[in-house]
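Folding Problem: From Residues to Backbone Shape
Fields: amino acid sequence; protein backbone structure tokens
RECORD BEGINS BELOW THIS LINE
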Amino acid sequence: MKFFLPTPLMSFSSIEAARGGMSRIRELSADEETRRLAFVRERALRDEVSFLNDARREGEAHLLSKLATMKFGELPEWAQQRLEQANSSQLDKWSEKILTANSLDELFKH
């Protein structure tokens, strides 16, 4: 295994860059408006991720509902509710079982 030993000049420049970066972080952290904007950005990103996850889950449920309807006929209310209330992990398991299940009961069986 080879090790890279930095030259003294490289070591000095990287330390100075780190000090400059830390100084800038301290300046920005001291500014209340900058902290507020960072908080708002983080919250917006979390909301967007949550929205995308919800949309993906709804899409998975819709597709599985269509496949189950094609295979078993019109879905009873209880089956529709199970699909609407399921999380992504459960929908994924049911998506794998849709090909081999012989009934809705078998599909939704734990």
About this structure: The two ends are 51 Å apart (CA to CA).
